[in-house]
Amino acid sequence: MGIERELKQVTPEQRWRERRTRAAPIAQALHAWLVAQRIRTADGTAISKAIDYSLNRWAALTRYLDDPALPIDNNHDEQQIRPWATGRKNWLFAGTLLAGQRAAAITSLIQSAKLNGHDPYRYLKDVLTRLPTHLARDIDQLLPHRWTPTG
To answer: Is residue 43 in a domain?
Structure first.
């Protein structure tokens, strides 16, 4: 990750060039090491399964070397889906199916508001205040990607 940290602020062309000259040899060495270790490990062991997993996904693992727009990891995406993953476990204990569905809907609205650059509290407060008098045919205007705050 040290190489990637250094390349955060460079142009895509520079990032691609540096990845090819600095990171690609490291990836090639890792691949060779994995192949050598796999030959030495017995089939069916945990380590052989881990090595096979990496080798079978090698193209995807190293795809970032050829595309400067791709990050080396998916940490940002993982952070974005964490509330859903956490919620999925929590909704099992919501009490009833309907309560779990409501919790999922609220969490979805909150995360959608965040993804659209809104403060979730302000968004929900405004929407819930407007909802009783809002026309049913215009309800889509209250969705996070179309919402404009009042006042």
So the answer is: yes
Q: What angle, rounded to 10 degrees, do the helices at 46-56 and 24-40 form?
A: 140
The number of C-alpha atoms within 13 Å of 134 and in the hemisphere containing its C-beta is: 16
Contact 27, 55 (CB under 8 A): no
Query: 38 and 83 share a domain?
Result: no
**DSSP labels for 95-137?**
SSHHHHHHHHHHHHHHHHHHHTT--HHHHHHHHHHHGGGS-GG
- pTM comes to 0.58
Report whether 122 contacts 116 (CB < 8 A). Answer: no
Among left, alpha and beta (phi > 0; psi -120 to 50; other), residue 42 is beta
- The most distant pair of C-alpha atoms in the chain lies apart, rounded to whole Å, by 71
Rounded CA separation 57/59 (Å): 6
Of 65, 85, 105, the one marking the end of a domain is: 65
Write down the mean pLDDT value for the chain. 90
Number of H helices, E strands in the chain: 8, 0
Average pLDDT, integer, range 37-65? 96
Rounded distance, CA 98 to CA 127, Å? 22
Same domain for 88 and 130, yes or no, is yes
